[in-house]
Amino acid sequence: MGDPRFFAAPDAVSLSDIAAATGAELRGDGSRVVTGVAAIEQAGPSDLAYLDNAAYGSAIATTRAAAVVVARKLLDKAPAGLTLLVTDDPYRVFAQAAAKLFPAAMRSAPVFQERGIAPGAFVHPDARLEQDVTVDPGAVIGPRAEIGSGSVICANAVIGPDVRIGRSCSIGPGSSIVHALIGNRVTIHPGARIGQDGFGYAMGRKGHLKVPQIGRVIIQDDVDIGAGTCIDRGSTRDTIIGEGTKIDNLVQIAHNVVIGRHCIIVSQVGISGSCTLGDFAVLGGQVGLAGHLDIGAGAQIGAQSGVMQDVPPGARMGGSPALPMREWLRITAILRKMTRKGAPDEKL
To answer: By the 8 A CB rule, do 175 and 193 touch?
Structure first.
């Protein structure tokens, strides 16, 4: 059996070109070229690696990499003669360099690897597709849907009636989009569900009466939405995902939620209805938000936290129920000490 590589070997890129594109300070031979990226301990003589964590500082002494993107604060770890790209933010520079080498990895590619509308795709005659739209086999595009140039609709994706999808978007295999307006350069990974019913019921002793969900989902430019993530449409208002926000796999976003610009939402987060997140808010993995909360701009919520009250801008919270991070850490430390103190006397 062969050993396939799913991303083709890139053209060689000189270190001087990478330095110019990223703003990193080049120390060494700028004419040297790289054709790949790798972890610092695994890199070969044509690879670019990076170092931004002192815990891996010993690896730079023995690396075989062509060059290393290194944090300025770790320069003393680098051996003489190693070509360096020096920066205060090595991970970001490394990401820029990797994107330059492997642009195909920046968005989902057509599964069928053909351009245009493939045989076996179902495009309603009333749908409007600009030039250079790719539609894989099995994809369904409903009436009056509009899709901008350069967008890719992968295999078995479903685009509902009247949906708008902007330019240079990627809609992953098996995903579904209904009742939604999508901006430009949006990536939706496989199996995501956008625009389905919100979970709204008028509860009572005679049973639970469904509340019609007649809002939309609006996703602004440059948003990434992970595999298996669900974003419900609004009930009477719109569910909104702000520009540049990045959402991991398996996230649930309920009806009427408004998420600001450039937020980070990590896997298995659950956001209840009508919550608002300010710009640049961060939710760690498995965070749960109760309904109708306001999470301020720049707030950071630690993993597995249960948030049941508003969070002010810039706050750092942790625990369940969530508390200011220092308070939560102090309580955790006290409980740990109490437990350890009593441990020797405990008997089963």
So the answer is: yes
Catalytic-residue membership of 255 = yes
pLDDT of amino acid 3: 64
Note the Cα 300 to chain centre separation in Å: 16
The DSSP 8-state label assigned to residue 116 in this structure reads S
Map out the domains of the chain with their CATH numbers. Answer: 13-106 (3.40.1390.10), 175-348 (2.160.10.10)
Query: Which alpha helices (H) appear in 65-105, and where do they start and end?
Result: 90-101
Catalytic hit among 124, 208, 255, 292 = 255
Beta bridge partners of 134: 152
Rounded to two decimals, what is the model's pTM?
0.90
3-class secondary structure, 347: coil
For position 112, what pLDDT does the model report? Answer: 87
Amino acid 114: pLDDT: 87
Position 39, amino acid: A
Residue that is written with structure tokens 């640049």 in the block: 280
Nearest to 221 by CA among 148, 313, 117, 312: 148
Task: Check: CB of residue 181 under 8 Å from CB of residue 239.
Answer: no
| Secondary structure of 203-243 as H, E, C letters | CCCCCCEECCCCCCEEECCCCEECCCCEECCCCCCCEEECC
